[in-house]
Amino acid sequence: MREKISAYHKQAIREVLESYPLNYMTLNTGVYYLNDTDTPAEEVISHANIARRRAKETSTCVFEYNAELSSTEQKRAETIHSFQNALAKKEFQIYFQPKISGKTQEIASAEVLVRWLREDGTLWFPDSFLPILEETGEIESLDYYVYNAAFQWLADRRENGLPLLPLSLNVSPIHFRKIDTFTQRITQLLDHYQIPSKYLVFEITETTYIHNIDAVNQMIRFFHDRDIRISMDDFGSGYSSLNSLKDILFDEVKIDKHFLSAGLSEKGKIVLEEMFHLLKRTDKWIVCEGVETKEMVDFLIAEGCDELQGFYYYKPMEQKKFEELIA
Question: How far apart are CA 250 and CA 142, in angstroms?
Answer without folding.
Answer: 24
